[in-house]
Specification:
There is one protein chain. The protein is an all-alpha fold. The chain is built from four helices and no strands. The radius of gyration is 51 Å and the shape is flat. The mean pLDDT is 77.
Length: 129
């Protein structure tokens, strides 16, 4: 009941009060942007200073081609004597023995890895709590 009375009172006040409406215009007001006009005018009036022909002198070095390399001077008798000495030399025996001992250590490490893999294949027993 109270809501019916309040609705009636609201409708009565709405009908008596004049509606003030503001009209909106969709066209933009044409106004000049003075700052933009001054900026464009200054840009158009700007003239870049002319560069002199010698402006690059302090910035760029003159190119000088490097000297051609000279071939090393080696006499053919020295080369032939060095080749003869190389062909007569015997290879070091110590390197061969070192390689045989390293292959033995590889076999041992291979066996160690196999033992570790066999250990890893075993089932893991978990304790129940």
């Amino acid at each position: 009941m109270l809501s019916a009375l309040s609705n009636a009172a609201l409708s009565a006040t709405r009908s008596r009060a004049p509606m003030a409406a503001r009209s909106l215009s969709s066209s933009a007001i044409a106004s000049k942007d003075f700052v933009q006009e001054i900026y464009i005018k200054e840009l158009k009036a700007y003239k870049a200073p002319a560069k002199s022909a010698d402006a690059h002198k302090g910035q760029v070095r003159d190119f000088h081609a490097p000297k051609a390399p000279q071939a090393p001077s080696v006499s053919t008798s020295d080369i032939s004597s060095e080749l003869d000495a190389y062909s007569k030399s015997e290879p070091d025996v110590a390197e061969a023995s070192a390689s045989s001992s390293s292959s033995g250590s590889l076999l041992e490490s291979h066996e160690d890895v196999n033992a570790w893999l066999e250990e890893a294949k075993k089932p893991v027993v978990k304790e129940h709590h």
